[in-house]
Amino acid sequence: MRNSVIRKFLVLSLIFSFIGGCSRLDPAQLRRASQTKVLMGTYVSVDVCYERGKAAALSDAYDEVWARLKEVEGGMSIYDPQSEISQLNRSYPDAVPVGHDLYYVLESSTRLSELTRGAFDITVSPLVHLWRDSAQEKRIPTKAQIALAKDGVGMPYIELLEDQRARLLKSGMSLDLGGIAKGYAVDEAARVLRSKGFQDFFIDAGGDLYVGGRSCKGTPWRIGVRNPAQRDQIIDVVEVRNQAVTTSGNYEQYFEIDGQSYSHIIDPRTGVPQKGIVSATVIAPITSEADALATALCVLAEQEGIELI
Question: Rounded to two decimals, what is the model's pTM?
Answer without folding.
Answer: 0.88
